[in-house]
Amino acid sequence: MKRTGNKGFTTIVLLLVIAGLGYYTYLSNHANSSRDIPKDTEVEQLLTYDFENDYPKTVRETVKLHCRYLKCAYNAGFTEDELSTANRQIRKLFDQELLEFNSEEAQLQDMKEDIKLYDEKKQKFTSYSLGEASQVVYNTENGKDYAKIKATIVLRVDAVNMSVDREYILRKDEDGRWKILGWESVTNKAAENEGDAE
Question: What's the number of CA atoms in the CB half-sphere (13 Å) around residue 152?
Fold first, then answer.
């Protein structure tokens, strides 16, 4: 009977050790799998961006989001179908006046042509930078709030980087959201002066 008792005790200990190892393995795998879950890619984040609940709060954030879309689009980050979705998303950043001036189909076609031109010229949208919040210029006209901010876009052409400055004009809508009214290329005065000095 002593032998039977020892076998029973050994079996119970063995089962407890196996259960413990099994539980440890489960916890270890669960922790690793939650760590291994990749964060959304930039493309996924942009295509599913929730403008209704997470519209950019400032002029700077609005323009930054627009630049993120452009960088992805011009670097072939979107498939053909995704580009259409991205175009609809980009339009949510635009002022109503700009939307009326620029139909969805025309905007998409223009973007496709620009992307093709970038490819032909072997240009790559490498980065962008925005003026600081303190550099945003605000004014009010006819009871409407406007803002201007400069963005610098860096393009790589072959192995050479070149920068393009854009001035964005935004207008606050009735919900207090800054919407892009338009943008234009501006001359970098510092670069102009350097050029004159040479």
Answer: 11
